[in-house]
Write a structure and sequence with these properties.
Elements lengths: L1 H4 L1 H5 L3 H14 L1 E2 L9 E7 L3 H8 L5 E2 L2 E7 L6 H4 L2 E4 L4 H11 L5 E4 L4 H4 L3 E6 L2 E6 L1 H6 L3 E2 L1 H6 L2 E2 L1
Parallel strand pairs: 2-4, 2-5, 5-6, 6-7, 8-10
Antiparallel strand pairs: 1-9, 3-4, 7-8
């Protein structure tokens, strides 16, 4: 994760691909409760992303996360997220829209990742933060635990902020 954070500037990797790579790594460092943990697929849902962001996320299809392979879905409505997603990547929505997505999930075991500055206040699990030198992230550990998710120690150690 730490190397990934500084990859963008050094390699010219664009922000959308870097964000998608972060989501993949974060998913790889997350443990879901059974029966999700035993599933052969892990569904990564995306909402509110620009076309380049969607393309970067779609490139993650069939990548491994533990013994599962990623399946990518694009969502338009919050109500579809709880039953269809294990990871939800939200683009740059405003705080009210973020809260709407988070509330629609209820207590579902979904790793919610957002790219908005308001993300932590809205109750997401992880907020990705673009910086001139790469990417950083903040973790809402209590929200992740409430959803039954276990984040590995490296995620917590490398986070800019843990709540």
């Amino acid at each position: 994760l730490q190397a990934l954070a500084h990859t963008a500037g050094a390699s010219g990797m664009d922000e959308d691909r870097l964000r998608a790579a972060f989501v993949l790594r974060l998913a790889q460092y997350t443990q879901w409760p059974a029966p999700i943990a035993d599933s052969p697929t892990l569904t990564l849902c995306a909402a509110g992303l620009q076309p380049a962001g969607l393309e970067a996320v779609r490139a993650l299809a069939n990548r491994p996360v533990g013994s599962a392979q990623i399946r990518v879905k694009v969502l338009a409505e919050p109500r579809d997220a709880a039953r269809n997603c294990q990871v939800l990547l939200l683009g740059q929505p405003d705080a009210a829209t973020l809260r709407q997505w988070v509330m629609a999930l209820g207590d579902a075991a979904v790793l919610v990742v957002a790219t908005s500055p308001e993300a932590m206040r809205a109750g997401v699990c992880i907020a990705l933060i673009s910086e001139p030198q790469g990417m950083a992230f903040s973790v809402n550990h209590s929200e992740s635990k409430r959803r039954g998710l276990s984040l590995a120690a490296p995620v917590l150690k490398l986070a800019r902020e843990v709540r």
